[in-house]
Amino acid sequence: MARGLHDVNLTGRWLSLAGLLLMISGDGPFQTLGLSRWPTPLPFVASLPLYLPLLFLGFLFFGVANGLKSKTTPGVHAVIKPLGLLLGAFLLSTVASEVLRLSARSFLAVLIILSAGWGFVQLMGDERFRRAMGPVVAIAVVLLDVLVISWRYDEGLNTEAYHLRNNAWLGKLQLTWVLNLFAPLLLGWAIGVPRRSLAAVYATAWLLTGAAMYFLYSRMGVIVFGMTTLGVLIFTLSQWRRTLGIVIVAAAVSVTLVGRTREMAHFVVSTIADPSLNPGVGMRLAIWSDALRLFRLRPITGHGLGTYDVVSYTETENAPDHEYLYRGSGWHAHNVYLHVLAEAGILGLAAWCYLWFTILAQIFAAWRRATPPDRTMLVGPFFALSAFLVLSLTEVMIAARVHASFRMNLTLAFLVALALSATQRRDTTADYLK
């Protein structure tokens, strides 16, 4: 009996790790690595979102092997109340929705995302999963970096990036998000992990992520990558010997990349320095005005969870053309906070902010209690989630009802589970990052 449960537990662990790998890497190349070159021999592998059945079967097997017992930590307990308040606000918004069926679908998607988050929390309680998780995350991010760099190299490094069709992440904006979510995590691990060989793996993954980020030429992505990198370096000054080597190599790579792409580098820097040169700024200001108009129409409960891409066509002036493409298909407010405000009202936004304040407060409190070596393991998750909150100022990539954003939500749930798990470990480096 014990042997059987061990095998089920092992199966659940490996299924979850495989699902995690595919979720982060974007399922792998569909047809080619580049725009037109390097055809892949097994395109069917990426034809379906295999990460979903792998993840949820992994959760199921792991739960059965552990007698369906729930393992939580004080960090997880701290977010239950704000999470309950957010669910309550979303439910109220759903019940009062103008498009009830659409809101109900969105609320169901939120519940599935929460169940996945709970599954990740349970897996974080397993020592062997934690030890394997770090290398799996690094490999997944490297695979995604290779896909991005291959496509952009074939497309031309001095051209703007839009859609990269060799992975399941939807264009440069989603790629900007996912790369920025994992970059500070990898840098923190590279600085803090004791084993030099493993630190080199994490540092290499972070460097490749920086290169892939640069090739996407996303202004907000470059800004956030720089902010989180600086934040991690400042909060890990006690490990300056390890940090110095990484910074020197990163500087050399940066100079080389800018030298190869001077035209595009000038374009990115000039439009950051002078936002009036960026047409996206004016577009977003108009859309934000629309979101505020929607809020004023229904300020308490909003128009209904997951309905922005429908009500924006009936109540606002700046919804995009080609309604058949965007209506009901993920059009958003280009600002998560305004998006939540329009869909769930002031109650939803207050609960949303309370939840993220609680999560970051838990990480920061744990960082203050930790010893200097252990603090490096908390800095990564802190700035990963901070990157999400900053990127949320200009885009919305978490519309739960839309599958491409559903993947982003699951990725975010994984990072939150990892962060809350790290807050409760007295010796974080000795466990899952040996």
Quick one: biggest sheet?
none
**Oligomeric state as shown:** single chain
Order of helices and strands: HHHHHHHHHHHHHHHH
Class inferred from helices and paired strands: mainly alpha
| Estimated helix fraction | over 70%
Which spans have pLDDT < 50 for at least 5 consecutive residues? Answer: none
% residues in beta strands: under 5%
Give the CA-CA distance, first to last residue. 31 Å
The total domain count is 1
Total strand segments: 0
Number of helices: 16
Give a written overview of the molecule.
- There is one protein chain.
- The chain is mainly α and 434 residues long.
- The protein has one domain.
- Helix content is 72%, strand content 0%.
- Helix 1 packs antiparallel against helix 2 (51-65) and helix 5 (127-155) runs parallel beside helix 7.
- It is globular, with a radius of gyration of 21 Å.
Secondary structure: elements and pairs:
Blueprint: H1 2-25, H2 51-65, H3 74-95, H4 100-124, H5 127-155, H6 171-192, H7 196-216, H8 219-235, H9 240-260, H10 262-273, H11 279-297, H12 308-315, H13 323-326, H14 336-369, H15 372-391, H16 403-422
Helix pairs in contact: 1-2, 1-5, 2-4, 3-4, 3-14, 4-16, 5-6, 5-7, 6-7, 6-8, 6-15, 7-9, 8-15, 11-14, 14-15, 14-16, 15-16
Summarize the structure.
By secondary structure, the chain is mainly alpha-helical. It has helices at 2-25, 51-65, 74-95, 100-124, 127-155, 171-192, 196-216, 219-235, 240-260, 262-273, 279-297, 308-315, 323-326, 336-369, 372-391, 403-422. The model has no long low-confidence stretch (mean pLDDT 86).
What distinguishing features does this structure have?
0% strand, single chain, 434 residues, mainly alpha
